[in-house]
Amino acid sequence: MRRVLLPLLLIVLFSLNAQAETYRISGKATYADNTPVALEYVYVECEPGIIDCYQYRGTNAITDTYGYFTLILDVDAEEDDLDIQLSLRGENVTHTIDISKHQNSNENQVYQNIQLEQNPPPSGVFMGFGCVIVLFTLVFISVILRTGRRLTTKQGRMEFMGYKQAKQLQCPTCNEMILQHQLVMHLIVEHDMEPEDAGKLTGTVMRRTWSEEE
Ligand SMILES: [Zn+2]
Protein backbone atom coordinates (compact mmCIF):
# COMPACT_ATOMS: atom_id res chain seq x y z
CA MET A 1 0.00 0.00 0.00
CA ARG A 2 2.75 2.42 1.00
CA ARG A 3 4.57 1.68 -2.22
CA VAL A 4 1.59 3.01 -4.14
CA LEU A 5 0.90 6.07 -1.93
CA LEU A 6 4.21 7.82 -2.25
CA PRO A 7 4.31 8.02 -6.06
CA LEU A 8 0.67 9.07 -6.01
CA LEU A 9 1.45 11.87 -3.58
CA LEU A 10 4.35 12.99 -5.74
CA ILE A 11 2.15 13.06 -8.81
CA VAL A 12 -0.49 15.15 -7.02
CA LEU A 13 2.15 17.59 -5.71
CA PHE A 14 3.77 17.84 -9.12
CA SER A 15 0.51 18.53 -10.92
CA LEU A 16 -0.48 21.19 -8.34
CA ASN A 17 2.88 22.79 -8.83
CA ALA A 18 2.55 22.70 -12.59
CA GLN A 19 -0.91 24.22 -12.54
CA ALA A 20 -0.27 27.42 -10.59
CA GLU A 21 1.95 29.86 -12.34
CA THR A 22 3.01 33.43 -11.85
CA TYR A 23 1.31 35.78 -14.25
CA ARG A 24 2.64 39.30 -14.61
CA ILE A 25 0.66 42.16 -16.07
CA SER A 26 2.81 45.19 -16.85
CA GLY A 27 1.69 48.45 -18.31
CA LYS A 28 1.73 52.17 -18.28
CA ALA A 29 -1.11 54.25 -16.88
CA THR A 30 -1.83 57.61 -18.45
CA TYR A 31 -4.44 60.34 -18.17
CA ALA A 32 -6.50 61.55 -21.11
CA ASP A 33 -3.78 64.08 -21.94
CA ASN A 34 -1.12 61.30 -21.93
CA THR A 35 0.60 62.46 -18.73
CA PRO A 36 1.56 59.50 -16.51
CA VAL A 37 -0.61 58.51 -13.56
CA ALA A 38 2.05 58.60 -10.84
CA LEU A 39 1.92 56.88 -7.45
CA GLU A 40 -1.65 55.58 -7.65
CA TYR A 41 -2.90 52.07 -6.92
CA VAL A 42 -4.09 49.77 -9.70
CA TYR A 43 -6.56 47.26 -8.22
CA VAL A 44 -8.00 44.06 -9.62
CA GLU A 45 -11.81 44.27 -9.68
CA CYS A 46 -14.35 41.71 -10.87
CA GLU A 47 -17.54 41.93 -12.85
CA PRO A 48 -20.46 40.71 -10.73
CA GLY A 49 -20.93 36.95 -11.13
CA ILE A 50 -17.46 36.20 -12.53
CA ILE A 51 -16.66 33.96 -9.56
CA ASP A 52 -13.27 32.73 -10.83
CA CYS A 53 -12.09 36.33 -10.72
CA TYR A 54 -12.95 36.87 -7.05
CA GLN A 55 -9.69 35.31 -5.79
CA TYR A 56 -7.76 38.16 -7.43
CA ARG A 57 -10.00 40.94 -6.19
CA GLY A 58 -8.00 43.54 -4.25
CA THR A 59 -4.63 42.49 -5.67
CA ASN A 60 -2.88 45.75 -6.32
CA ALA A 61 0.26 47.50 -7.46
CA ILE A 62 1.30 51.13 -7.23
CA THR A 63 2.38 53.04 -10.32
CA ASP A 64 5.83 54.60 -10.32
CA THR A 65 6.46 58.26 -11.11
CA TYR A 66 6.36 57.46 -14.85
CA GLY A 67 3.03 55.62 -14.57
CA TYR A 68 4.46 52.08 -14.90
CA PHE A 69 3.04 49.26 -12.81
CA THR A 70 3.32 45.47 -12.57
CA LEU A 71 0.52 43.32 -11.14
CA ILE A 72 1.44 39.77 -10.11
CA LEU A 73 -1.18 37.01 -10.01
CA ASP A 74 -1.00 33.26 -9.45
CA VAL A 75 -3.08 31.74 -12.21
CA ASP A 76 -4.26 28.18 -12.98
CA ALA A 77 -4.78 26.73 -16.42
CA GLU A 78 -8.55 26.93 -15.83
CA GLU A 79 -8.34 30.70 -15.65
CA ASP A 80 -7.15 31.08 -19.22
CA ASP A 81 -9.46 33.52 -21.03
CA LEU A 82 -10.84 34.88 -17.74
CA ASP A 83 -11.80 38.56 -17.77
CA ILE A 84 -10.61 40.69 -14.87
CA GLN A 85 -10.96 44.42 -14.38
CA LEU A 86 -8.00 46.68 -13.67
CA SER A 87 -9.30 49.61 -11.66
CA LEU A 88 -7.49 52.94 -11.39
CA ARG A 89 -8.92 56.22 -10.05
CA GLY A 90 -12.45 54.90 -10.44
CA GLU A 91 -12.05 53.78 -14.05
CA ASN A 92 -11.90 50.15 -15.16
CA VAL A 93 -10.08 48.44 -18.02
CA THR A 94 -10.80 44.81 -18.90
CA HIS A 95 -7.86 42.43 -19.11
CA THR A 96 -8.29 38.92 -20.49
CA ILE A 97 -5.91 36.42 -18.92
CA ASP A 98 -3.94 34.78 -21.73
CA ILE A 99 -1.66 32.10 -20.32
CA SER A 100 -0.09 30.98 -23.58
CA LYS A 101 0.73 34.56 -24.49
CA HIS A 102 2.39 34.92 -21.08
CA GLN A 103 4.36 31.68 -21.56
CA ASN A 104 5.53 32.71 -25.01
CA SER A 105 6.52 36.23 -23.99
CA ASN A 106 10.20 37.06 -23.81
CA GLU A 107 10.08 39.04 -20.55
CA ASN A 108 7.68 36.62 -18.85
CA GLN A 109 4.87 39.15 -18.72
CA VAL A 110 1.91 40.43 -20.67
CA TYR A 111 1.19 44.08 -21.33
CA GLN A 112 -1.92 46.01 -20.47
CA ASN A 113 -1.76 49.77 -20.63
CA ILE A 114 -4.42 51.85 -18.93
CA GLN A 115 -5.54 55.05 -20.64
CA LEU A 116 -7.92 56.99 -18.41
CA GLU A 117 -10.71 59.18 -19.70
CA GLN A 118 -10.12 61.69 -16.92
CA ASN A 119 -7.59 64.49 -16.96
CA PRO A 120 -4.96 64.88 -14.25
CA PRO A 121 -6.19 66.61 -11.08
CA PRO A 122 -5.64 70.39 -11.20
CA SER A 123 -2.23 71.38 -9.92
CA GLY A 124 -3.96 74.17 -7.95
CA VAL A 125 -4.50 71.62 -5.22
CA PHE A 126 -0.75 71.21 -4.96
CA MET A 127 -0.24 74.99 -5.04
CA GLY A 128 -2.64 75.52 -2.16
CA PHE A 129 -1.01 72.75 -0.21
CA GLY A 130 2.42 74.21 -0.96
CA CYS A 131 1.35 77.64 0.34
CA VAL A 132 0.22 76.13 3.62
CA ILE A 133 3.57 74.40 4.00
CA VAL A 134 5.51 77.60 3.23
CA LEU A 135 3.40 79.57 5.72
CA PHE A 136 3.83 76.93 8.37
CA THR A 137 7.59 76.87 7.79
CA LEU A 138 7.83 80.66 8.11
CA VAL A 139 5.91 80.68 11.38
CA PHE A 140 8.04 77.83 12.66
CA ILE A 141 11.29 79.61 11.72
CA SER A 142 10.21 82.89 13.35
CA VAL A 143 9.31 81.05 16.56
CA ILE A 144 12.71 79.35 16.53
CA LEU A 145 14.48 82.67 15.93
CA ARG A 146 12.58 84.43 18.69
CA THR A 147 13.24 81.59 21.10
CA GLY A 148 16.88 81.56 20.05
CA ARG A 149 17.27 85.26 20.78
CA ARG A 150 15.75 84.84 24.20
CA LEU A 151 18.05 81.93 24.91
CA THR A 152 21.14 84.11 24.41
CA THR A 153 20.48 85.83 27.75
CA LYS A 154 20.69 84.04 31.06
CA GLN A 155 17.35 85.39 32.17
CA GLY A 156 15.79 84.22 28.90
CA ARG A 157 17.13 80.72 29.44
CA MET A 158 15.78 80.65 32.97
CA GLU A 159 12.34 81.82 31.76
CA PHE A 160 12.44 79.26 28.96
CA MET A 161 12.96 76.55 31.55
CA GLY A 162 9.98 77.82 33.49
CA TYR A 163 11.59 80.07 36.07
CA LYS A 164 10.00 83.40 36.69
CA GLN A 165 12.66 85.34 38.43
CA ALA A 166 11.42 87.38 41.38
CA LYS A 167 12.69 90.92 41.17
CA GLN A 168 15.40 91.78 43.65
CA LEU A 169 16.74 95.16 44.69
CA GLN A 170 20.00 96.01 46.35
CA CYS A 171 19.55 97.58 49.74
CA PRO A 172 21.37 100.96 49.54
CA THR A 173 22.37 100.74 53.18
CA CYS A 174 23.79 97.23 53.62
CA ASN A 175 24.11 96.19 49.92
CA GLU A 176 22.16 92.97 50.56
CA MET A 177 19.85 91.75 47.71
CA ILE A 178 16.26 91.99 48.92
CA LEU A 179 13.07 90.98 47.11
CA GLN A 180 11.42 94.12 45.74
CA HIS A 181 8.22 93.82 47.77
CA GLN A 182 10.21 93.25 50.96
CA LEU A 183 12.64 96.17 50.69
CA VAL A 184 10.43 98.72 52.47
CA MET A 185 9.91 96.33 55.36
CA HIS A 186 13.66 95.54 55.37
CA LEU A 187 14.58 99.24 55.62
CA ILE A 188 12.11 99.82 58.45
CA VAL A 189 12.98 96.70 60.44
CA GLU A 190 16.73 96.34 59.82
CA HIS A 191 17.74 99.98 59.51
CA ASP A 192 15.16 101.65 61.79
CA MET A 193 13.88 103.98 59.03
CA GLU A 194 10.62 105.87 59.16
CA PRO A 195 8.04 104.20 56.88
CA GLU A 196 7.83 107.33 54.71
CA ASP A 197 11.59 107.54 54.21
CA ALA A 198 11.76 103.78 53.58
CA GLY A 199 9.11 104.17 50.86
CA LYS A 200 10.93 107.06 49.21
CA LEU A 201 14.29 105.24 49.29
CA THR A 202 12.73 102.11 47.77
CA GLY A 203 11.24 104.28 45.05
CA THR A 204 14.65 105.74 44.28
CA VAL A 205 16.28 102.29 44.13
CA MET A 206 13.51 101.00 41.82
CA ARG A 207 13.87 103.92 39.44
CA ARG A 208 17.61 103.37 39.33
CA THR A 209 17.10 99.70 38.49
CA TRP A 210 14.66 100.53 35.68
CA SER A 211 17.07 102.96 34.07
CA GLU A 212 19.81 100.31 34.25
CA GLU A 213 17.60 97.82 32.48
CA GLU A 214 16.83 100.10 29.57
ZN1 LIG B 1 19.79 96.69 54.32
The tally of beta strands, per DSSP, is: 10
Order of helices and strands: HEEEEEEHEEHHEEHH
Estimate the strand proportion. 15-25%
The rounded Rg comes to 40 Å
Helix fraction? Answer: 40-55%
Instruction: Enter the CATH topology name of the largest domain.
Output: Immunoglobulin-like
Looking at the overall shape, the CATH architecture of the largest domain is: Sandwich
CATH superfamily of the largest domain: Carboxypeptidase-like, regulatory domain
The backbone outline, from C-alpha atoms, is elongated
Please, what is the average pLDDT?
85
Number of domains: 3
Unreliable runs:
none
**Which small compounds were modeled alongside the protein?**
zinc ion
CATH class group of the largest domain: Mainly Beta
Number of helices: 6
**How far apart, in Å, are the first and last alpha carbons?**
106 Å
Structure, described:
The protein is α+β, with helices and mostly antiparallel strands and 214 residues long. The protein has three domains: 2-115, Immunoglobulin-like (Sandwich); 122-163; 166-214, no CATH class. The protein has helices at residues 2-19, 99-104, 124-151, 154-160, 183-191, 195-213; strands spanning 21-30, 41-45, 60-62, 68-75, 83-88, 91-96, 110-111, 114-115, 168-170, 177-179. The strands form three sheets. Strands 1, 4, 7 and 8 form a four-stranded mixed β-sheet that branches. Strands 3-2-5-6 form a four-stranded antiparallel β-sheet, with no helix packed on it. A hairpin with a 6-residue loop joins strand 9 (168-170) and strand 10. The longest helix is centred in the middle third of the chain and has 28 residues, at 124-151. It is elongated, with a radius of gyration of 40 Å. 11% of the residues are buried. It binds zinc ion (ZN). The site of zinc ion has 7 residues, from helix 5.
